[in-house]
Write a structure and sequence with these properties.
By secondary structure, the protein is of the alpha/beta class. 30% of the residues lie in helices and 25% in strands. It has helices at 15-22, 40-48, 101-113, 140-144, 155-170, 189-203, 235-248, 282-290, 309-312, 345-359, and strands spanning 27-35, 54-63, 71-74, 77-80, 82-83, 94-97, 117-120, 149-151, 173-182, 222-223, 254-261, 267-276, 295-297, 318-325, 334-342. A seven-stranded mixed sheet has the order 10-11-9-12-15-14-13. The two termini are 38 Å apart.
């Protein structure tokens, strides 16, 4: 099988999804705010927005007081960053929050009270039963049921579920075993810079000094730097389990995860083992994923070309390959695959902007 780049077509499943997928008519947003505009996800959002069929009349960029006054290019204009305060949301219609859980918990309810709809990138509200957790390719209807706040899922959850959901629709998945290879970008712009500086230091014969991440990230692999629960799972692993159950609206799927940080700048990779209800072949999986929104097959077995973070970086789609039968499941119900997805784009900023597109369609 040769490497394939799939030009996907809009799903006819329902009107909201059609509007999101086609995106042909320009839609007006009078007042949009980006909270955490100078962080890695905020910067990425500002690069993506001009590419979308959204006309933003007034853009407000909000960040910490130390970033106030900074000028950021947005399309053909330059916008000055303002300090985030309790009075920042008067007249704001929509706000994309990418400033961390503590800021979201404090300011998102204030924004909603001011009449703003919040799309939040943090973990603050993801498991709140009153807050929809949305991946537009999977559960667009949930976005319409918001009460002022819509949560963006964890980046690893999004990247895993883009290819697993269309398979689950055809042949229900009973079990997911996933191991992640997570980039420094998941810990923010400072962690990305730390990876660069540590790599330079080590190559120059100097010692690497961890400041942002708990241990040396350059030339190293280590367990994801989130707290370990009583069950032995860290917070990142638990997010992937619980969030997938909520997004799929199915708690019967058995899910286990091992989350690892690797010395990659900005794209996460994942090794995924799936157990289906009925037997399924690799060719059937490829055929399903060819028409799946947000997926590009990179599965050239002859040339040994498969998903890599270096090729996923800057790509809107999740790259999927290494699709093969799990030989440990002789009943034919097991599939292995390897995926890579840009953590800053589909894993964060792009998904939030796609939710914004849903709300304005």
């Amino acid at each position: 099988m040769s490497q394939t780049h799939v030009q996907t077509t809009p799903s006819p499943m329902h009107q909201i999804r059609n509007a999101f997928l086609t995106g042909k008519s320009q839609r007006m947003i009078k007042n949009l705010a980006i909270v955490g505009a100078t962080g890695a996800v905020g910067v990425e959002a500002l690069q993506i927005l001009p590419q979308k069929p959204l006309k933003i009349e007034n853009l407000t960029l909000l960040a910490s007081p130390k970033s106030a006054g900074k000028e950021i290019a947005f399309g053909a204009q330059t916008v000055t960053v303002k300090a985030l305060t309790e009075n920042s949301f008067a007249g704001i219609d929509y706000a994309i929050f990418s400033a961390g859980g503590d800021q979201s918990k404090k300011f998102a309810p204030i924004a909603v009270k001011a009449g703003c709809v919040v799309i939040d990138n943090s973990s603050a509200f993801r498991m709140d039963p009153d807050v929809p957790l949305v991946i537009p390719e999977i559960n667009p209807d949930a976005a319409r049921a918001h009460k002022g706040i819509i949560a963006n899922p964890n980046c690893s959850t999004i990247i895993m579920n883009i290819p697993t959901w269309p398979l689950h629709q055809v042949n229900p998945i009973q079990r997911i075993v996933v191991s992640t290879y997570q980039a420094a970008s998941g810990a923010g712009a400072a962690a990305m810079q730390e990876l660069k500086s540590q790599s330079a230091d080590i190559l120059a014969g100097k010692a690497a000094t961890p400041k942002v991440l708990p241990v040396q990230c350059a030339f190293n692999v280590f367990s994801h730097n989130t707290p370990i629960g009583k069950d032995g799972y860290n917070t990142e692993e638990r997010k992937m389990i619980d969030e997938t159950h909520k997004i799929f609206a199915d708690t019967s799927i058995a899910i286990t995860a091992t989350c690892i940080r690797v010395p990659v700048l900005r794209a996460h990779s994942e090794s995924i083992n799936l157990t289906f209800t009925n037997p399924i072949t690799p060719d059937q999986v490829r055929e399903i994923l060819k028409s799946a929104k947000g997926v590009t097959l990179v599965d050239d077995q002859q040339e040994n070309i498969f998903p890599m973070p270096i090729t996923a970086s800057g790509n809107d789609d999740v790259l999927v390959g290494r699709i093969r039968q799990d030989v440990s499941q002789p009943d034919g119900r097991g599939i292995e695959m390897f995926i890579s997805g840009d953590q800053l784009r589909k894993g964060a900023a792009l998904n939030a902007i796609q939710i914004l597109e849903l709300l304005t369609s």
